[in-house]
Specification:
mainly alpha; 1 helix; rod-shaped
Length: about 40
């Protein structure tokens, strides 16, 4: 049971990391768009 919980937590952590990367990439794209449009 412990192992299943640990695996689920790892999967959640990976998903959160991916979401964070997507958000960071979008933020960077937005900043670049702001710079380029000036």
């Amino acid at each position: 049971a412990d192992l299943a919980i640990r695996q689920r937590l790892e999967k959640l952590k990976a998903t959160a990391d991916t979401a964070r990367l997507h958000l960071a990439a979008r933020a960077i794209e937005g900043a670049l768009d702001g710079v380029l449009s000036d």
